[in-house]
Amino acid sequence: MLKKKLFWQAILISILACVVVTMFAAWLAREQAKEELQTYLKDVAEQAMLRSDRAFTVSGNILDKLDRSDLKDCSEAHQRQLSIFIFKELFVRDVLYAPNQQVQCSQSSRVVYSLPPRDQQTISGPSLWFAFKGDLFRPSVLYGSGPHYAVLNSQYLVDILPVKKRELCIEAVLNNRVLAKTKGTPAHDNSWLQQSKVSLSNPHYVITAYLPPKELQRAWLGYFKDWLPLGFIVCVLLIGIIVWLTRRSFTMGLEIIEGLQLGEFVVHYQPMVALANGKVCCAEALLRWQRQNGSKISPDLFIGYAEENGQINLLTQFVLETVITDLAKLSHLDISVSVNLAGADLASPLFVENLAVLCRKYQIAPSRIELEITERSFVLGQSAINTISLLREAGHLILIDDFGTGYSSLSYLHHLPVDLLKIDKSFVQALGSGAATHHVASHIVQMAKDLGLEVVAEGIETSDQAEILKEMGVEWGQGWLYAKAMPFDDLCKFLQPSTTTPFKPLSSDPLPDAV
Ligand SMILES: Nc1nc2c(ncn2[C@@H]2O[C@@H]3COP(=O)(O)O[C@H]4[C@@H](O)[C@H](n5cnc6c(=O)[nH]c(N)nc65)O[C@@H]4COP(=O)(O)O[C@H]3[C@H]2O)c(=O)[nH]1
Known catalysed reaction(s) (predicted)? Predict the structure, then answer.
């Protein structure tokens, strides 16, 4: 059952681990792709801005020279002078001579017409027409303060050829109006990656470079492919670790058996005291597992495993044998030991007989071995109840452990063959804490009294808790206030004064070397 659970758990965790690693690689690749493309766009926007700056500065200089020249008569010499500049600079398509906004001539024509009203005036003074046609073939940008004006190829402003070719779009915008743009640019499409550069000489002139989402996808895929081998190695490593941990859990059953053979298990004892006078009356046997390599394994882990995988009977047998041989050494003291039993112990047909044989062999009165049974054991049904009855008839006291945390229906408690209820430590620790469960302990005590059962409270850590429990009428107490679980030798030392003087709480006595 547990193996199957562990197997599916391992598969699930492996899949999850691989999904997480792949998602992380994908996220990393996306971040890298984004960064690369943003840097690319920034470079392109800067290059385009340099180009624009140069185009307008050079045009300004040309026009200045022409305006200063004496040739302003649309003569052949004047037109020749205009054409020299056109040949010198690729982005100048033509130069118009237009005194008082009246075009008199260009380098190749003498058609006379009026200039349309300008579209904008730049902050440095010259006027600007965004799509000036005049008598030209193609609409162009017209720029100048007059009487000479430069007809500029707007495409030149945005025509950048970066080293790495991509589906790039560039827009030059002046005062929120597009002055020039490459083909296919989707103005204001937020799904495109973009970077802008503002002109240093004119803050209203902005060049923005765009890349479509598919370029991001393409770059992402490239980086993702680079990450895949490493991601694969990490996945294999993680799966290896998960398989190793799972195999370790699978083999815990064998390790328990091996641990028993190697003597890695020991029984520790936690004293139980009479709350009325502080005298130690009993001790709970708690199993400890320390591997030969020094690591300690918690009972919550190995007991649960052993209960589900069939090694619990071996552990119980070991605990009972140890407890009985230890008790034989304490024959001069009036002390009993309580042992935890699991459902599988009660289900074993030989359990009652084995225990009787052990008690006889070491001449231990059964009343000195108390048996702690959790509420879960009763779920096993009538056969478990019959076994408990037999144990009780043999002279063992029966305690219900961790009372209040299990499935017991209070209504049928009086049918069960038990002598004591052990209040779970969670309810003891809730006492006086204001927690929602702080009343549970008093209800349990009240109910136990009604049924004529005695009560033990476990997990008592403070004298306030002990005082409250005593006032409630709880007879017995166990917890770190008195002592932690300790090896048998320490228990013997611990018990010496208790035979003559009542027990003093730990707050004034140092703890023995407890575990
Ligand atoms: N916070 C706090 N804890 C306290 C205090 N006093 C005692 N404890 C701890 O509470 C647990 C009491 O044992 P449990 O309820 O029977 O719960 C036990 C019991 O169910 C199981 N277990 C231990 N030994 C055996 C065994 O030999 N056989 C079986 N079947 N189960 C065992 O393992 C569980 C855990 O045992 P441990 O780790 O030894 O933990 C012990 C004990 O060390 C306290 O004042 N404060």
Answer: 3',3'-c-di-GMP + H2O = 5'-phosphoguanylyl(3'->5')guanosine + H(+)
Is the predicted pLDDT of residue 378 greater than 70, yes or no?
A: no
Ligand 1, atom 11, lies closest to the CA of 459
Both 491 and 435 in one domain: the answer is yes
Task: Show the domain range for 479.
Answer: 251-499
Q: What residues does 297 pair with on adjacent strands?
A: 289
Question: Residue 125 gets which letter from DSSP?
Answer: S
Quick one: 185 and 297 in the same domain?
no
User: Contact 44/168 with Cβ under 8 angstroms?
Assistant: yes
Residues 446 and 369 in one domain: yes
* Contact status, residue 417 vs residue 427, Cβ threshold 8 Å: no
**183-190: long-range contacts, CB 8 A cutoff, minimum separation 24:** 185/210, 186/210
CA of 300, closest atom in ligand 1: 33
pLDDT at residue 349, rounded to an integer: 84
Regarding whether 367 and 284 lie in a shared domain, the answer is yes
Percent of the chain with pLDDT over 70: 92
Q: What is the CATH number of the domain that holds 466?
A: 3.20.20.450
Asked if pLDDT for residue 500 goes beyond 50, the answer is no
Going by alpha carbons, the residue nearest to atom 5 of ligand 1 is 459
Q: CA angle 111-116-120, nearest 5°?
A: 135
Q: What is the pLDDT of residues 269-299, one digit of tens each?
A: 999 999 999 899 999 999 999 999 899 999 9
Distance 435 CA to ligand 1 centre (A): 23
